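Loading example: each entry is read as two labelled lines plus one structure line.
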Amino acid sequence: MRRTDEEAFRAFVTERQTVLRRRAFLLCGNWADGDELVQEALARVYVAWHRITPGAEAAYTRRTMMNVYLNDQRKRRREVLTDQTPEPAVTDHDRELALTLTELLKDLPDKQRAVIVLRFWEDLTVPQIAECTGVAEGTIKSQISRALAALRDRLAEPPLTGAGAVP
Amino acid sequence: MTHPDQSEQQLRRALRTMNDLEPPTDELFVQRAVIRGRARTNRRRNTLIAAAAALVVVAGGGGAWLLQGGLPGATTASPASAPEVMSDQGSKSGADSDAGGSAGGREQPTLSAGPDNVPVRPPGVASDWFVGPLTPQRAAIEGLAPELTTSWSAVFSGAWAKDDTNEHIVVALTHPDLALERWISANVRDAAAVEFVTATHSYADKAALAERIHADSPALATEGIVISTVTQDYRADRVAVAASGTDAIARLQQRYGADWVTVTPLPQGAGGTFATPPPR
């Protein structure tokens, strides 16, 4: 990678890291796994940086993250998992929020979880999600529908605090 | 029962709380991303070059075998890129490795004549890290290398055998790191036979410099300096460059830093191709 490219990559990561890490947290359920996901995705983005059309870096990174996440989850199914997050959140407020979000999305299949995050956190349209995940639009719609159905009972309860509190 | 639209709104609100959540502070996040990216780039390039080298070896060996018809006692042609040791009726006659092959402190794999005089690489003789016997200690370090050169590339500097037996290994780190040292010790055959030393330059930094020299080689060629090989010399903690051209040593050291590169001068007209694999 040329020095100017590397500087551009550095600037991109510096600017986007918070968003990338939040997205990864929603996908993985904890910061440690989320950060590892972001780092792995960024390593791939670094390799491909010179091929990425200027302005498309964020979309490329999003797509790479989703690919890494879904591939990784496939492998992890063979591992023994624990529901203990490896590190506590920074403050009580953060811990509460983190637990609420983790609780909300837990038990959702990986693909539904990814689609929900893209649709309702990142506000992507169905065609955009289809392009990002490489899945047909019809499949995306049905995954959203199934995920919402699965979440409906949880959403009907008022466990959420802060900005997400149900009025 | 919640209405679907209402569910969507509630979900949106719930997920929006994520924006209130600050990730744990990680000042090295960007730096780690760059280092991992560099390491991944190097791994990919090495894989490609290894595949190409294997093809050359196979093609060269096969071609020689065809040309010579497998006649007993006939010597075997070797690929231009590799020094070789050929056995001939029980006695060994070796060809000195060319300057490009020896530059960089890492010897090249030696080839010996196998059945039908096709050059074969004896198992375990040479790798990107060690030359000589394939001991459990060596195998263990080579097994750790992928992790050392990615996750630890900012601390790890290099590794080499203390002697020809490959039983005692030296691991260089940019600073003492108990966690890393414990991890390495726990994963080798004999922890007592691993010595940790401190080096100045990390693996990642040397790899980045080597990559830069590779990238600069066309420009350098226009200035009369022809780069032949670029490798990492782990023992010397430098990037080793073999090059030809007037004042190649002084000019390259001035350009990249005398404490960063070791330059092996080659005769004018030599080089021009990267005969050895680039650094890991």
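Confidence is low (pLDDT under 50) at residues 159-167 of chain A.
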